[in-house]
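Fill in residues.
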């Protein structure tokens, strides 16, 4: 061996770590399709045949709860519990897993166990929650594949409350784990943890100007800064941020107050030491830390000496008991600003009685000062929150019930409909935030309904567009929306610009009598109409196909629909129908990817749908952009053959449109948008487009389109799984 080669590393330094240069980092403005394939089957060790919903049903649910309950007081030397009870830690773990949920795009939440991975596992606000998950490992190890991390993380917090005296509202199993971080979720543009929140707002003094879809006020926080806006105490300003942030997480004022007060009825904050001495977060720590982060040199950083938020102290006299102690201290004393040993702003009571002080977490012979955060003081000083707290103080049972319901909503909001709930503790009550839908009829004659639709006089675009607009609201982030329920006929959806209200009302006027007279639900008839249109388009292209269909969708009523919460599902752009409500800073093709990912589509499914919908003539408002065919209505490959034909050149035409010009004659043959042309300009999307442009793939295209169409139409059919 040449001596010059000795000791050389066989791989490029940094090439296999996050610091290494990836292919796409050379061209940061290139369209990144990774979001469509972020949970590729190759990341999943369980195999394609594994069905968690079926496996979890085999659990001994009582045994699992008993083991988790026992764990609460099974003190471990490597990470001792505060007051010998892990309840506060487990509740915080559950809360912070669920609390990333945001209503705007449905992303975040606890439904996938994503908190196990970066960046969430290393957020400053999640400090030491890595220890909570390690404490749970014996339970996960024991029950294995039948108990997901996602379920266990939420179960632990719920059981913790029960073990401390709260009658909880219920619990549902059914969350399946992911196996790779969701790196493409947008958590903010900041490049450093806890950067001032000003950049997230048009005006930081106006919380409603926070950038959408964000909810947390700073990078690395779950909700608001506990010290105050940008770390400056002012309870009334903090109250305004609390209100906006919790609203973006689907909570009203009463739920927000209940969660704040009930969340701080137990446990404590940790800031008894110098935060600057802490080691790196889990993703930044070296291998000898065993995957744990925030190593604390001060007596191991355990219990009394732990540092997490930097705020130090308990909120109540008895932090391991569910009681009314939070209100007793908050409203029973005056409070003054002080700083924790770690240097964080917090509030302490003036002239507190010794018997109202909690005992030290490890030395129960010593009493220590309680504290409140700026958000807690907001509950006292904001008039609306104060009135709610006074109502709670007057009725302990009402407070406990309100909190239990809000906790259930917090920890289940991203699970979708009750059809996904599993286990003996699923509440029987239908809650409006679950978007309830009654079961639909299945015994009608499907063929007869399709025949009536075909003879109704509706155009192919009428049928396809109405079905698409009904189904496209589905988002896999929180399993909301979709065609089931036929909410497209209700407010607010019936009035959305993207749904073309006049056309929609006309089409529904034709389909509703068919539903009424056939015994089918309108939701089923809408989907069947779209299927009829697709089958007609395939036949016009020379292929006889039958689009898969399963009856049983129900029709929701206005009383079952929280109209305000459906506002966030309104499409602001739909690249599949070549439409945008207005010009946005984000490019049309990026908005297309976001919509496709929420609908659960892969890149090739998205490609097939775009090409098929263009040639069927389904553009919003009937525009001709991207309709690269002279045979509109036939499910042909013309979109792709035109797109890849070098006999044409593309010329900007202004306002985001382009002319497709014949190179020889100079004649403009077609017009297009960026969404159309990206399938010919982006190297990955062009590769898919070329597949469908090949002479031997006309039949494959029809089959792929039908499969993708059916996937969209049935994405919300959890009753079929």
């Amino acid at each position: 061996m040449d001596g010059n080669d000795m000791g050389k590393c066989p791989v490029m330094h940094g090439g296999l770590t996050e610091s290494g240069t990836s292919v796409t980092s050379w061209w940061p403005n290139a369209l990144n399709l990774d979001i469509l394939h972020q949970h590729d089957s190759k990341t999943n060790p369980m195999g394609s045949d594994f069905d968690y919903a079926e496996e979890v049903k085999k659990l001994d649910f009582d045994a699992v709860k008993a083991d988790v309950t026992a764990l609460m007081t099974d003190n471990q030397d490597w990470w001792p519990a505060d007051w010998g009870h892990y309840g506060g830690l487990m509740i915080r773990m559950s809360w912070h897993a669920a609390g990333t949920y945001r209503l705007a795009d449905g992303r975040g939440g606890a439904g996938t166990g994503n908190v196990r991975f970066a960046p969430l596992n290393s957020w400053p606000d999640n400090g030491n929650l890595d220890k909570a998950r390690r404490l749970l490992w014996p339970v996960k190890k024991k029950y294995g594949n039948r108990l997901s991390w996602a379920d266990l993380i939420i179960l632990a917090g719920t059981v913790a409350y029960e073990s401390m005296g709260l009658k909880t509202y219920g619990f549902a199993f059914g969350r399946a784990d992911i196996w790779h971080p969701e790196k493409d979720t947008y958590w903010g543009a900041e490049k450093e943890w806890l950067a001032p929140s000003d950049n997230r707002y048009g005006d930081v003094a106006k919380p409603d100007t926070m950038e959408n879809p964000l909810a947390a006020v700073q990078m690395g926080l779950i909700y608001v800064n506990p010290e105050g806006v940008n770390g400056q105490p002012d309870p009334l300003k903090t109250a305004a941020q609390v209100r906006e942030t919790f609203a973006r997480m689907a909570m009203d004022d009463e739920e927000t107050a209940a969660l704040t007060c009930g969340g701080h009825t137990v446990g404590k904050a940790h800031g008894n030491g110098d935060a600057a001495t802490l080691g790196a977060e889990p993703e930044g720590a070296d291998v000898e830390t065993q995957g744990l982060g925030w190593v604390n040199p001060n007596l191991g950083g355990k219990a009394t000496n732990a540092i997490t938020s930097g705020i130090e102290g308990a909120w109540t006299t008895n932090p391991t008991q569910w009681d009314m102690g939070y209100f007793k201290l908050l409203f029973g004393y005056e409070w003054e600003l002080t700083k924790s040993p770690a240097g964080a702003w917090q509030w302490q009571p003036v002239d507190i009685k010794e018997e109202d002080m909690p005992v030290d977490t490890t030395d129960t012979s010593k009493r220590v000062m309680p504290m409140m955060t700026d958000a807690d003081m907001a509950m006292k000083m904001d008039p609306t929150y104060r009135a709610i707290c006074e109502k709670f103080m007057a009725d302990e049972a009402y407070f406990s019930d309100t909190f239990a319901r809000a906790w259930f909503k917090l920890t289940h909001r991203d699970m979708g409909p009750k059809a996904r709930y599993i286990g003996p503790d699923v509440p029987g009550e239908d809650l409006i935030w679950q978007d309830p839908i009654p079961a639909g009829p299945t015994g009608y004659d499907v063929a007869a309904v399709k025949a009536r639709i075909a003879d109704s006089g509706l155009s192919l675009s009428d049928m396809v567009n109405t079905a698409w607009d009904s189904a496209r609201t589905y988002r896999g982030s929180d399993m909301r929306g979709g065609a089931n329920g036929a909410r497209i006929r209700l407010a607010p959806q019936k009035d959305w610009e993207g749904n073309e209200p006049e056309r929609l009302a006309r089409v529904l006027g034709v389909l509703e009598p068919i539903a009424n007279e056939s015994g089918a639900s309108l939701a089923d008839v809408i989907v069947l109409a779209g299927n009829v249109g697709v089958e007609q388009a395939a036949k016009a292209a020379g292929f006889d196909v039958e689009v898969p269909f399963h009856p049983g969708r129900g029709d929701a009523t206005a009383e079952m629909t929280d109209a305000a919460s459906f506002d966030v599902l309104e499409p602001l752009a739909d690249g599949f129908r070549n439409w945008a409500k207005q010009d946005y800073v984000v490019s049309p093709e990026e908005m297309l990817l976001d919509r496709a990912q929420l609908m659960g589509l892969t890149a090739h499914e998205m490609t097939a749908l775009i090409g098929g919908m263009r040639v069927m003539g389904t553009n919003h408002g009937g525009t001709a952009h991207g309709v690269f065919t002279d045979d509109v209505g036939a499910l042909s490959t013309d979109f792709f053959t035109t797109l890849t034909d070098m006999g044409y050149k593309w010329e900007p035409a202004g306002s985001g449109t382009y002319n497709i010009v014949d190179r020889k004659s100079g004649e403009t043959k077609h017009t297009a948008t960026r969404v159309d042309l990206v399938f010919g300009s982006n190297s990955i999307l062009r590769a898919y487009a070329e597949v469908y442009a090949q002479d031997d793939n006309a039949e494959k295209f029809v089959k792929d389109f039908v499969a993708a169409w059916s996937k969209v139409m049935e994405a919300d059919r959890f009753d079929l799984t």
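The chain has 22 helices and nine strands.
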